Task: inverse folding
């Protein structure tokens, strides 16, 4: 629209200048016959326009800055500026634009005088006595050239679907040619009409000469004899009409676009981000927020960075963890963002089933299990991660794994682990990193707990007999999913449970900061996620094929279950993104003795309140 407005304004200036010059064409012709040159005529008109152009050039930047600053007091910006003026900065750019506009205006206004100065007195008499011949653009078919150029620009705009282009360096800029596409089409349509207009007038005048009154026939004959003197007002009328139609239709489109951009950035009616809550936001906090008058619904979210693969040079992308059910109920989503509706998409990443909890007996004061490693590995330590009733996680170190023979290892359960507690993971630690782990086979059986009874005595209770592989997942390492977990035959008279199987981990060279092992699976073999189409284009990831990514610094098995073009609050062009289940990631981190990073939490709210000022202050 801006390009069309500039085109109409420039043409209007040119036409008005031409009309003024027409009134003085005899004077100009006389001056030319007295020896004045065409350049001198141009300078004469430029000097006349000097005060008319210079004053606006100087005043325009200051007036524009004043108007822009006062836009902050309009209702649309009031919630952001709180009724104050928008902050502005005085720079050279407005002055450069004003000077450029002043020079362009001067050239447009001087051009008709320079063109007129080429005619002598004799030429002026001929023009007055004879009809105007066809204009230049018709003699050289420039109207068809403009039409073809406009069609090419419109085709390019429809192909790339944006006036923003990205160069080879990844920098974005506005395609100026695409901006002038509508103006070119409109001008071409007007010029084509002017080619048909004289013929149409001749036909009408012939018909009117036989049937219409004399005054009508005379007027039409004069129009048909000199049709091109009316060409310029007709062209202006066509362009102004097109501008009016475009403004009427574009205003609704721009308003809808602005509204949807805001909805895309906020997802819900409003949301709070960068919340400081180490380890995530608890259920009690959510209940307190949900009970605030005016809050209809809310959903948890968390933003973070992730990295494709297991190396430090992996492709970086954004991770958005959310509560799928709650987010689907309150978030805005457009149909062209994906092939399926939001509720269906989020249902595919919802983790509804996870491993059953392995509870420690009440009163457990010590935990232990039978272990061996073959071939022996020095400095290989056994860790058991326990999750207390309060959600706090504790890591119990059972000491070094002592070699190819079976040994019983145990350790005291720390007081910070509040009962009832569950077993979250079993890991081995080696003081190394990356791909420097010692390859070995770690075998283990019969995890038990020493329980203090009410009478003060103690007894051992079997916790895990390791007779089933179900509900256990292997931890990814720097080599990917190279750790293998299986069950093998149990040797006779091993442990407190005479079963038929023992657990076995085949460890490779890969580690995760020296750690390898198994955990109580919270999402099956891999975390299901939605991914942006841009992420698949930039990486080797495929739908349905698991891969390992670094999520909050931890190697995490991930599988893409579906793709989207866009997702609220996320920018697919920045680096790509994935969307995952908040609860599944939280449980996975807890199984490894970690929590969400601080300051990354977000909460999304739905409300029917018109004025959000009081509600937001209450939420804070």
Result:
């Amino acid at each position: 629209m801006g390009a069309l407005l500039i085109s109409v304004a420039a043409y209007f200036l040119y036409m008005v200048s031409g009309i003024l010059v027409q009134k003085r064409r005899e004077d100009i012709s006389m001056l030319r016959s007295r020896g004045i040159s065409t350049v001198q005529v141009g300078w004469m008109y430029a000097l006349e326009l000097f005060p008319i152009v210079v004053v606006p050039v100087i005043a325009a930047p200051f007036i524009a800055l004043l108007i822009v600053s006062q836009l902050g007091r309009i209702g649309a910006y009031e919630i952001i500026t709180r009724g104050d003026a928008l902050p502005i900065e005085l720079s050279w750019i407005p002055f450069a634009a004003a000077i450029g506009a002043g020079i362009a205006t001067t050239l447009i206004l001087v051009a008709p005088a320079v063109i007129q100065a080429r005619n002598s007195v004799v030429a002026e008499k001929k023009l007055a006595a004879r009809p105007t011949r066809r204009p230049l653009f018709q003699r050289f078919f420039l109207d068809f050239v403009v039409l073809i150029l406009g069609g090419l620009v419109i085709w390019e705009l429809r192909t790339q679907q944006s006036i923003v282009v990205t160069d080879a360096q990844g920098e974005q800029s506005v395609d100026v040619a695409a901006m002038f596409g509508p103006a070119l089409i409109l001008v071409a349509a007007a010029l084509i009409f002017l080619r048909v207009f004289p013929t149409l007038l001749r036909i009408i005048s012939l018909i009117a000469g036989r049937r219409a009154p004399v005054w009508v026939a005379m007027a039409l004959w004069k129009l048909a004899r000199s049709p091109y003197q009316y060409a310029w007002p007709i062209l202006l009328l066509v362009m102004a009409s097109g501008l009016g139609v475009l403004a009427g239709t574009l205003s609704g489109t721009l308003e809808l676009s602005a509204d949807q951009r805001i909805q895309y950035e906020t997802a819900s009616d409003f949301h709070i981000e960068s919340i400081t809550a180490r380890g995530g936001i608890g259920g009690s906090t959510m209940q307190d927020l949900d009970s605030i008058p005016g809050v209809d619904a809310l959903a948890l979210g968390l933003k973070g960075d992730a990295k494709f693969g297991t190396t430090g040079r992996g492709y970086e992308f954004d991770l958005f963890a959310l509560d799928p059910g709650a987010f689907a109920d309150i978030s805005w989503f457009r149909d062209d963002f994906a092939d399926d509706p939001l509720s269906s998409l989020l249902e595919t990443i919802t983790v509804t089933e996870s491993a059953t909890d392995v509870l420690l007996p009440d009163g457990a004061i010590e935990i232990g299990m039978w272990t061996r490693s073959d071939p022996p590995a020095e400095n290989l330590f056994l860790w058991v991660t326990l999750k207390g009733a309060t959600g706090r996680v504790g890591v119990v170190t059972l000491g070094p794994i002592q070699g190819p023979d079976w040994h019983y290892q145990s350790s005291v359960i720390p007081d910070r682990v509040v009962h009832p507690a569950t077993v979250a993971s079993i890991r081995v630690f080696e003081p190394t990193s990356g791909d420097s782990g010692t390859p070995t086979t770690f075998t283990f059986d019969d995890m038990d707990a020493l329980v203090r009874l009410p009478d003060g005595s103690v007894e051992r209770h079997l916790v895990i007999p390791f007779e089933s592989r179900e509900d256990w997942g292997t931890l990814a390492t720097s080599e990917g999913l190279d750790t293998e977990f299986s069950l093998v035959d149990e040797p006779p008279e091993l442990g407190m449970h005479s079963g038929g199987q023992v657990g076995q981990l085949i460890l490779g060279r890969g580690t995760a900061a020296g750690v390898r092992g198994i955990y109580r699976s919270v999402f099956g073999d891999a975390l299901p996620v939605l991914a942006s189409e841009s992420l698949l284009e930039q990486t080797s990831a495929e739908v349905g094929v698991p891969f390992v990514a670094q999520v909050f610094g931890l190697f995490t098995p991930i599988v893409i279950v579906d793709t989207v073009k866009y997702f609220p609050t996320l920018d697919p062009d920045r680096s790509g993104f994935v969307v995952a289940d908040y609860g599944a990631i939280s449980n996975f981190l807890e199984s490894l003795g970690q929590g969400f990073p601080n300051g990354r939490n977000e909460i999304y709210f739905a409300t029917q309140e018109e004025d959000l000022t009081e509600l937001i202050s209450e939420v804070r």
Notes: The two ends are 42 Å apart (CA to CA). Residues 231-266 form the longest helix (36 residues). The chain has 18 helices and 21 strands.
